Amino acid sequence: MNEQPASTWPILDEAHRALRTVVAGVRDGGWERPTPCTQWNVTQVLQHAAGDQLGFAATITGSGWPAYDPFAPDGHLNGADPADFAGSAMRAAAAAWATIPQDATDAPTPLPQGRMAGWLGAGACALDAAVHAWDIAVATGQPSPLTPELARDLLVVARELVEPLRQWGAYAAVVSGADSDDEVDELLRYLGRDPEWYA
């Protein structure tokens, strides 16, 4: 897989690093395993995550939309290498976001909210990649790829965006917290995920 270019948005670069790491760590037989996205296996989550990255990129560039519905992934990569499949989508997103200035106030996104500040749009793209990296990691017995610092930054983004998206099923209801929760647990619970989930 080719080296990932920097997007100029550190939060997005870190989220992409997380997703690349867990995709590379899936062992043979892991692609059919169940995930916290209850209706999807690992391959389907990968398809969804890659399709979303392409959607963010295409909204900026005007081309390169996914050739399939990311919200109805079929679980078949048709012979594509998973790392290349994910990597090409992340490279497209990174390149697209590299064209958005740091002080942008009106960046395009594929979200129902439409255009938004650049930091928030790039954060939304990062949030999508990072949470699905976690989904794949826990489904395949890998350590969480989310650092406390990344989780803290993503939670700021999530609190700005997630509530309107729950009505479309993009995120489940908040999961009740525990006294022992750290930054990663807090983010996952806010996104409707149980930090203790296992396959």
From TrEMBL:
Classify the source by domain of life: Bacteria
Mycothiol-dependent maleylpyruvate isomerase metal-binding domain boundaries: 12-137
What GO terms are given for molecular function? metal ion binding
Under the heading Pfam families, the entry gives: MDMPI_N
- Ranges that cross the membrane: none
Indicate what this protein is called per its UniProt record: Mycothiol-dependent maleylpyruvate isomerase metal-binding domain-containing protein
Organism (species):
Dactylosporangium sucinum
